[in-house]
Amino acid sequence: MSRLNPRQQEAVNYVGGPLLVLAGAGSGKTSVITRKIAHLIQQCGIRAQYIVAMTFTNKAAREMKERVGTLLRAGEGRGLTVCTFHDLGLNIIRKEHERLGYKPGFSIFDESDIKSLLSDIMQKEYSGDDGVDEIKNMIGAWKNDLILPEQALAEARNPRGEPPPSSTRITSAPCARSTRWISTT
Ligand SMILES: Nc1ncnc2c1ncn2[C@@H]1O[C@H](COP(=O)(O)OP(=O)(O)O)[C@@H](O)[C@H]1O
Ligand SMILES: [Mg+2]
Predict the structure, then answer these.
(1) pLDDT of 20
(2) Ligand 1, from 5, 27, 32, 64: best to mutate by most atoms within 8 Å of Cβ?
């Protein structure tokens, strides 16, 4: 196994906070990350179950797991998470599905599932599916703004953001970029 150069070693040893390692392909970034995981577990006494290494692709996750495995002794890596962003999200939902109100066998829709569902709904409701992409994007924007379905419905019914009638009140969606008019009825 190659020895790390001083800059890599510095990155491995630094545990005081966030750290960005910016370097070209094949320059030793993954080596830094894998050694740092081993360092955190073996020298800093941090349990593997509290460490998450996130990669862009499944292939990179497999490679990283394998490389960390060679640095750890038996049992040291128990509970370590090395996965993609999507895997991490899926695992959290799987673990917390009850709390979220999902059934254990919930399914994840990909782009084409989403489009065919929207298209089905539109065929039924409007006998045509023009604008499926726009609707998908709108739903995506609501999700990015942390707008809940009920709030989205209220907004869709009142797209110009006109003040609601007196029977309603103003609520700000959590972390949303702007205040929205939310109907309470
Ligand atoms: N300091 C170093 N000296 C020599 N070889 C190194 C050093 N750091 C990493 N390597 C080797 O270089 C190759 C690429 O390293 P890797 O960590 O996969 O880079 P990156 O993730 O930046 O693409 C690997 O074979 C690794 O063992
Ligand atoms: Mg790499």
Answers:
(1) 96
(2) 27
